[in-house]
Amino acid sequence: MAKIGSALALLLILAALAAAVARAANVAVSGTVTGGAALAVASNGTPSFNLTLNGADQTATYTLPVQATDPRGSGVGWNLTVTSTQFKDASSHTFPTTASSITAATNTCSTGSTCTAATNGITYAAFALPAGAVAPAAVKFFNAAANSGLGKMDVNATVSVAVPANTFAGTYSSTVTVSIVSGP
């Protein structure tokens, strides 16, 4: 009888332990991610250059900094276009309309954004920045191929400005217009 009592006690202990074992259930979770607003581009700095005339033709450079934002979540890509007015001083002296050219462009994720860096397919050999008394037709200067350029990124284009030796000393200015358009 003692053996049956011990066996019964053991069975009761095992049953209690089995009841204390955690039970698990799988819960399916779904989430909907909606594409954000339209593409956006904004200036990300104030470019400038300084040059001292020395009797020879010279080239100055500046960085054209913009921030491109693609919150759409579609991966269709985008491109940046650029146009500019001719460099002119207060006395209406100008640089040639062909003075500026883009020689390179890079992109990195903006602070606070986990982006998919843009895969740029533009080559910059002899890439003239269009300029005129009024801004001429814009040209594509940077692009994000399909499935790249998602999120917020800083795009920095290096611009070279040819300054002829016969330029009048002064402060010259130009307005550069950058736009963002859907599609690579």
What count of domains describes the coordinates? 1
Rg over C-alpha atoms, rounded to the nearest angstrom: 31 Å
Structural class call reads mainly beta
Number of strands: 9
Main sheet: strands, sense, barrel: 5 strands, antiparallel
Q: CATH architecture, please?
A: Sandwich
CATH topology descriptor: Immunoglobulin-like
Strand content: 35-45%
Helix content: 10-25%
- Major beta sheet, strand line-up: 1-2-8-4-5
Cα(first) to Cα(last) distance is: 87 Å
H-E order:
HEEEEEEEEE
* Mean pLDDT across residues: 90
User: CATH class, please?
Assistant: Mainly Beta
- Shape category: rod-shaped
* Number of distinct helices: 1
Structural key phrases:
184 residues, mainly beta, Immunoglobulin-like, five-stranded antiparallel β-sheet, four-stranded mixed β-sheet, 1 helix, 10% helix, 35% strand
Notes on the protein architecture:
- The termini are far apart.
- Strands 1-2-8-4-5 form a five-stranded antiparallel β-sheet, with no helix packed on it. Strands 3, 6, 7 and 9 form a four-stranded mixed β-sheet that branches.
- By secondary structure, the chain is mainly β.
- The mean pLDDT is 90.
- It has one domain (40-182): Immunoglobulin-like.
- It has one helix at residues 2-20; strands at residues 40-43, 58-70, 78-85, 100-109, 127-128, 131-132, 139-144, 151-163, 176-182.
- The chain has one helix and nine strands.
- The protein is rod-shaped.
